[in-house]
Specification:
Elements: E1 4-5, H1 13-42, H2 46-70, H3 77-109, H4 114-143, H5 150-181, H6 184-208, E2 213-214, H7 235-263, H8 267-294, H9 298-323, H10 337-371, H11 381-436, H12 443-459, H13 465-470, H14 474-477, E3 482-487, E4 492-497, E5 503-507, E6 510-514, H15 517-533, E7 540-544, H16 550-556, E8 563-568, H17 572-575, E9 594-598, H18 601-607, E10 612-617, H19 633-641, E11 643-654, H20 660-673, E12 678-684, E13 687-696, E14 702-703, H21 704-712, H22 717-724, H23 731-735, E15 738-741, H24 742-749, H25 761-766, H26 775-783, E16 793-794, H27 797-809
Parallel strand pairs: 7-8, 7-10, 8-9, 10-11, 14-16
Antiparallel strand pairs: 1-2, 3-4, 4-5, 5-6, 11-13, 12-13, 12-15
Helix pairs in contact: 1-2, 1-3, 1-4, 1-5, 1-6, 2-4, 2-11, 3-4, 3-6, 4-11, 5-8, 5-10, 7-8, 7-9, 7-10, 7-11, 8-10, 9-10, 9-11, 9-12, 10-11, 11-12, 15-16, 19-20, 20-24
C-alpha cells in the first residue's frame, strides 16, 4: 500500500509559494557569493568555473534524488522543508569561516599539474556539496504536500516558478546592491537570515496546515491522455527534460558570452543577463503550470514545446550575433550607467526571453507527463518531482560544461548553437514520435517542423568579427579588417589591422594591446622600467598577462635575464596572437628562456613555490568581471611574498574608461602594500592615458648617471634601441614620466575605497564609469601633488637639473 497525503487546504499553498520565493532569493545570493570567494582560491579559468558549477549543480541533482529515499513521506513536508532551510542557513553561516580556512589549506597543498584539478574539485566538494544537496532536496520535500492531480501539478509548477522569481530577486539584490555597497560577509548573512525566516515560517505553518499520510486514491483524477496507458513508461520524458536542461544551460553559456561582448563584461552585465534568463524561466513555469492543469495530454504539449525551442534558440542566435549588435546605441552618451543598464535589460529580453519562457514551461509539463501514468497518481509526489528535477539538473550540468569547455572552443558559438538547436529538435522527437503512430495526421506537420529546425541550425552564422573586436562600440567602428578571430576556452579574441598598418589585439570586445604609438610606449615602458629598477639586472621575471607580448618581449632582451614565466589564461593568445606581433615583441613566445603557464594569474601566484627578481602585471581593465582580483590588497601581498630580496613589482593602471574614484582606489590599495611606491605616467596626444605603479622591497635612490651608463653599454644596445623606438631616446625621457609617490599622494588617495578579497569593491565601482573618457582630468588631479623628490634621484647636477626642469614642466596643470 502506497502512502501519500490527503488533499490539503488550498489556502496554505500561496503562503508556501512565498516561502519558496525567499528560498530562491537566498540560494542565488549564496551562489554568487560562494562562486566569487572560491574563484579567489581555485582561480577563474574555464576549468575552475566548470568545477564550481558542476559541484554546485551536482549537489542539487543529488539532493533532489536522495530526499525521497531517506525521508519518509509520513513526516510533515513543511517540517522537513523547515529543517532543510535551517540547515542550509547554518551551512551558509559556517562557510563564512570555513571558506578562507579551506582556501589556505588548498593553496598550501596545490603544486600545479593535473593533480591541481583534483584538488580544486575536492575543495569545491567539501564546501559546496553539503548546502547544495540540501537546496536540491527542498522542492521534492515540499512537493509531498501536493497530490499528482491536475491542480496539484499546477501548484508544483508555481512553486518552481516562485523559486525562480526569488532567484531573480537574489541575483539583482546581490549584484546591484549587497556586493556593491557591503561585502561578502554581509551578503551571506542576508541569505542566512532569509533561510532562518523561511524555516521559522514553514515550521509555524506546519502546525496549522493539515497533512496525513494515507492512501491517496481519493481526490481529483489524474491527468488524462495517452500517458494513462499502463504500458507507457516515462523514460522518454526524463530524456526530454534532461535535453531541455542541456539546451537551456548551453544556450545561456553561449548567449552570456555574446551579450557580455556587447554590454561590456561587467559584473552588472552578467547580473542582468542571468536575471532576464531567470525571469523567462519563471514566466514559462507559470504558463506551463496552467497548461499542465488544462491540457488533456501533457506529454504531447511537452513535445511541441521542445520542438519550438529549436526555433527560439535559432532566434536567439540570430538576435545576439546579427541584429542587436547593430542597434545604434552609444553608451558614452548616457548621463548615468543606470540608463545603459536599462538598454542592456531591453536587449537581453529581446534575445533571450522567448527561449527562456519555453524552457521554463518544460518543467511543470514534464512533471505532469510523468504523473499522468495510471498508477503514478498513487505514488510519492516528491519522488516524481525529484526524478524530473534531477534529470533536468543533470542535463543542465552537461549543457553548461559541454558548451563552455567543448563546443565553443572547438566549433565556436555558432557551432554550439547549431548543436543546441538539433538537440531541442531531438528532444521533441523523443517525446512525439512514439505518439505519431496513433496520429498519422500529425506526421506531415512534424516532418515539416523537423526540417525547419535543421534549416534553422544550418542558417546560424558565425559571430561577426566586429562584435569580438569592438564589443559595445561596434556601432561606432563597424566592420574591421580582421586578420584573425578566435573563440577560445576563456575568451573571444581578434587581431585587426588599420589602414595605416597599426595592429590591434582585442579580447572580449575591447582593445587590450596594439602597435599604436601610445600603446607601444606604455608596453615598452612597463617592461624596461621594471627591469631597470632592479639595480643588478633581473635574472628571473614573472609577467602576468601575455597581451601582445610586447612587455614580456621588452624584459626578455635585458642581458641579465635567465628565466621568464608568463602567466596567461587564454591559450590562443600566446599560440596564435603573438605571431601577429612577433616583430614588436621580439618573438618572445618562442624564446627558450620563456615558460608560458596557462592559468589564472592569481591562482598561479597563490600556488607557485617560485620567487622572482621582478614581477610585472598588465591585467585586463578592472571593470571586467573577475579582473578586480588582480588589484586587491591581498593579491599585492602575495606578489610581495613572491619577490626575491631587492625585488621589484610593477602594475599597469588605466586612466581611460574609468573615473577618478576608481584610479584612487587602485593606487591607494597598491600603496597599502608598497607605501613608498611610485607612479610613472604615459600620455597620449598630451592627454592622460595610463600609468605604471612601481613597488620596491628596497627603497634605494635611482642613480640617473648609472642608468644612462647602463643603456649606453654595448650589452644593452638592444634595450637602448627598444626604448628609442618608442620615443625614449635617453634615460631622461624615461625618468621624466615620474608623477608621484606614496608619501606625497597621501592627501589625494585619502578616503579611497581599498579593494580587498572580502569585498572586490573595485569591480563594482569601476563598472559604473567604464564609458567615461576622463584620463586627462584624472592625471592632472594627481599631478597637483607631485614634487621633485630630491631623495629619490641622485647623480651629477648636470644630469639632475635637466631632469628636474623636464619633470616639473610636464603637462600644464590648472
Amino acid at each position: 500500500m502506497s502512502l501519500s497525503n490527503t488533499t490539503p487546504s488550498n489556502r496554505y499553498l500561496p503562503v508556501m509559494l512565498l516561502l519558496f520565493v525567499g528560498s530562491g532569493c537566498a540560494a542565488l545570493i549564496y551562489e554568487i557569493v560562494w562562486f566569487q570567494i572560491l574563484q579567489l582560491v581555485i582561480g577563474a579559468s574555464a576549468v575552475s568555473l566548470a568545477v564550481l558549477l558542476g559541484t554546485f549543480m551536482g549537489g542539487m541533482f543529488a539532493g533532489s534524488l536522495l530526499l525521497t529515499r531517506f525521508v519518509s513521506p509520513a513526516q510533515h513536508p513543511l517540517r522537513v522543508y523547515a529543517k532543510l532551510e535551517l540547515i542550509v542557513g547554518i551551512c551558509g553561516a559556517l562557510l563564512i569561516v570555513l571558506m578562507p580556512l579551506v582556501g589556505r589549506i588548498y593553496t598550501a597543498m596545490d603544486g600545479g599539474g593535473p593533480a591541481s584539478i583534483v584538488l580544486r574539485a575536492l575543495a569545491s566538494a567539501i564546501l559546496l556539496l553539503p548546502p547544495t544537496v540540501l537546496m536540491g532536496a527542498t522542492l521534492p520535500a515540499i512537493s509531498r504536500y501536493v497530490q499528482a492531480t491536475p491542480s496539484g501539478i499546477a501548484w508544483l509548477g508555481f512553486f518552481y516558478g516562485g523559486n525562480i522569481f526569488g532567484a531573480v530577486i537574489g541575483c539583482l539584490l546581490a549584484g546591484f546592491y549587497l556586493l556593491r555597497v557591503f561585502d561578502f560577509t554581509t551578503a551571506s548573512l542576508v541569505a542566512v537570515a532569509l533561510n532562518v525566516i523561511v524555516a521559522g515560517a514553514s515550521f509555524v505553518l506546519s502546525q496549522r496546515a493539515p497533512y496525513t499520510a494515507s492512501d491517496s486514491g481519493k481526490g481529483e483524477s489524474a491527468v488524462t491522455g495517452e500517458a494513462s496507458s499502463p504500458r507507457w513508461q516515462p523514460h522518454a520524458i526524463y530524456i526530454a527534460i534532461a535535453l531541455s536542461g542541456l539546451t537551456a544551460l548551453g544556450a545561456e553559456v553561449v548567449w552570456t558570452r555574446l551579450l557580455s561582448l556587447l554590454f561590456g563584461a561587467t559584473t552588472y552585465a552578467f547580473s542582468i543577463i542571468l536575471a532576464v534568463f531567470l525571469i523567462g524561466l519563471g514566466i514559462g513555469s507559470a504558463i506551463g503550470s496552467n497548461l499542465a492543469r488544462n491540457t488533456a495530454n501533457a506529454r504531447a504539449t511537452l513535445g511541441w514545446v521542445q520542438l519550438l525551442l529549436a526555433f527560439t534558440t535559432a532566434y536567439g542566435a540570430w538576435m545576439t550575433a546579427q541584429q542587436i549588435p547593430w542597434w545604434p546605441v552609444n553608451p558614452a552618451l548616457a548621463p548615468s550607467a543606470w540608463f545603459n543598464f536599462q538598454i542592456d535589460l531591453a536587449r537581453a529580453v529581446f534575445a533571450m526571453l522567448p527561449g527562456a519562457v519555453l524552457w521554463g514551461a518544460s518543467f511543470p509539463l514534464a512533471v505532469a507527463a510523468v504523473s499522468g501514468r495510471g498508477n503514478e497518481v498513487h505514488a510519492d509526489t516528491g519522488a516524481i518531482v525529484g526524478r524530473v528535477y534531477a534529470a533536468n539538473t543533470l542535463g543542465a550540468i552537461g549543457g553548461s560544461l559541454l558548451a563552455g569547455l567543448v563546443f565553443v572552443p572547438l566549433i565556436g558559438t555558432h557551432g554550439a548553437e547549431r548543436v543546441l538547436i538539433i538537440a531541442s529538435a531531438a528532444s521533441g522527437a523523443i517525446v512525439l514520435l512514439p505518439m505519431l503512430r496513433s496520429r498519422p495526421s500529425s506526421i506531415g506537420l512534424c516532418t515539416l517542423l523537423f526540417a525547419g529546425a535543421l534549416w534553422a541550425a544550418v542558417s546560424v552564422r558565425p559571430v561577426p568579427a566586429a562584435l569580438v573586436a569592438w564589443g559595445r562600440m561596434i556601432s561606432w567602428f563597424g566592420e574591421p579588417h580582421a586578420l584573425y578571430v578566435g573563440e577560445g576556452l576563456n575568451s573571444s579574441i581578434a587581431v585587426t589591422e588599420e589602414a595605416n598598418g597599426w595592429r590591434n589585439f582585442h579580447v572580449s570586445g575591447k582593445v587590450e594591446a596594439s602597435t599604436e604609438p601610445q600603446d607601444m610606449r606604455l608596453q615598452r615602458l612597463l617592461g624596461h622600467l621594471t627591469a631597470l629598477m632592479d639595480e643588478k639586472g633581473p635574472k628571473s621575471a614573472l609577467v602576468v598577462g601575455f597581451g601582445a607580448g610586447v612587455t614580456a618581449g621588452a624584459i626578455s632582451i635585458h642581458p641579465t635575464l635567465e628565466r621568464m614565466v608568463i602567466c596567461e589564461l587564454e591559450p590562443l593568445i600566446p599560440k596564435v596572437v603573438s605571431t601577429y606581433f612577433s616583430e614588436a615583441n621580439y618573438d618572445v613566445a618562442a624564446n627558450p628562456k620563456v615558460q608560458i603557464v596557462y592559468d589564472d594569474a592569481r591562482h598561479y601566484m597563490l600556488t607557485t613555490r617560485g620567487k622572482f627578481d621582478v614581477i610585472t602585471s598588465d591585467p585586463i581593465h578592472p571593470w571586467v568581471k573577475g579582473a578586480a582580483t588582480l588589484y586587491t590588497r591581498e593579491y599585492f601581498e602575495h606578489v610581495k611574498e613572491r619577490l626575491n630580496p631587492g625585488g621589484v613589482v610593477t602594475q599597469w593602471v588605466p586612466l581611460y574608461e574609468t573615473t577618478e574614484d576608481v584610479v584612487r582606489s587602485e593606487i591607494a590599495t597598491f600603496l597599502e602594500v608598497f607605501p613608498n611606491g611610485t607612479i610613472w605616467r604615459n600620455d597620449a596626444r598630451n592627454g592622460g592615458y595610463d600609468v605604471v605603479l612601481v613597488g620596491r622591497l628596497e627603497e634605494t635612490p635611482i642613480d640617473v648617471d648609472a642608468w644612462q651608463a647602463k643603456i649606453d653599454s654595448p650589452e644593452y644596445e638592444a634595450v637602448k634601441a627598444s626604448l628609442a623606438d618608442v620615443g625614449y631616446a635617453t634615460i631622461l625621457d624615461v625618468l621624466k614620466t615620474y608623477s608621484g609617490r606614496g608619501k606625497d599622494l597621501g592627501p589625494w588617495v585619502a578616503g579611497a575605497e581599498i579593494n580587498t578579497d572580502k569585498n572586490l569593491r573595485l569591480q563594482y565601482l569601476a563598472a559604473f564609469g567604464f564609458n567615461n573618457n576622463l584620463g586627462t582630468q584624472i592625471r592632472d588631479s594627481m599631478l597637483r601633488y607631485r614634487t621633485f623628490p630630491e631623495d629619490l634621484f641622485t647623480g651629477q647636477e648636470s644630469s639632475l637639473d635637466p631632469l628636474r626642469t623636464a619633470m616639473m614642466a610636464g603637462p600644464a596643470v590648472p
